[in-house]
Please model this.
Amino acid sequence: MSESLDSYQTLITDARDAFKRHFGKKCDAVATAPGRINLIGEHTDYTGGLALPAAIDRWTAVAFSQREDSLIKVHSINMSDDYEIDLSRIKATPLPEKEWQKYVYGAISLFQRDCGFQTGLNLLIAGNVPLGRGISSSASLEMALLNAFRDINMSDISDRELIELGQQVENIYLNVPTGLLDQFASQFSREGFIQLVDFRNLSNEYVQTHHNMENHEWALIDSQVKRSLAGSDYETRVKECRESFSLLKEKDQNIKHYRDITESDLQKHLKDEKPILYRRLLHVVKENARTLEAQVALQEGEVEKLGELINETHHSLQKLFEASCKELDLIQKIGIKHPACAGGRMMGGGFGGCVLFLINKNGRDSFIDYMENECQHHFSQKLPLMILNLVWGARIETCKD
Ligand code: GLA
Model:
């Protein structure tokens, strides 16, 4: 964990130094928000389901200070680019073309709508969350910005409302109907913990993992297949779930929420008539059940069982939900053959991005060598591999000196 702390502190120092170089004076504070992994519970959040996310030691940092005028001036280190908006003319300011600027524009517009800014700001964005890889670089940017705005304006907006603003940035300005998984994990995570989140009522529980789990860790392999949620199959999946739910509600008055749906309801009402919709919701129903089983496996230290559940999730996303791709399937298949690997699955929105593996720490080096060789063989290149630590959620780091 000290490695994570080092990279966290380095990122904050870099953001503060870059802020000073760019704006010519010191920042007041740095807001940080992490990316996330999700053990199990994929494509369940927008149907009020269950998930087991945790924040990882990759962050977006926003260094900030107030200005005397009504301008918000933003510099992004990763994009080597600037953006500027006048708070007094927000409504007349069009949505920018560039994707990173849309997030900034969205967060500013929504915060202005719900809380209001006292003055303009200087903002500098830095970060080490790989972009567009399914580990929530977007949510970490939204949450770092929104936490910075809340802090500097001394707003009393709650954490819950803040994550909903983050979600709206994506829904309204990026035009993607994402759920709350990423923002929830980025805001509410605790160091070393996995959360069980219930999206039906937005409640959470920090899972007490058994000491058996201490010998294990999480590794991510980046397929290098770039995923973009915007205008993608993600939206189609959300629509398919909604359509299936409406059909089921019409057929059975007792079904009022997705969580009321059972496998036999699906068999009775959808299997023959709407086989695709049947498969989509079968994934959701089984995934919710798997999430609860995974929670027990974590608490009881049943690593093998957890690995099996993780593999099942992959196959369900591959075959029922059809959110995988051939590269992810191959990486998963190769990875789980290694003796140190308890299980693996594609993670996040899918259609590209990363594969998550649960591995035994004693076999880490051998797993890394094995995957490097295998990926070189199958993809003719080394694929980035990250070993992850589970960290705390969004924070404000004040700059004292
Ligand atoms: C993306 C979305 C989340 C969630 C996952 C799939 O990360 O932003 O809301 O739907 O995909 O579980």
Notes: The chain has a mean pLDDT of 96. The longest helix spans residues 275-300. The pocket of alpha-D-galactopyranose is lined by residues 42-43, 45-46, 178-179, 181-182, 348-349 (CB under 6 Å).
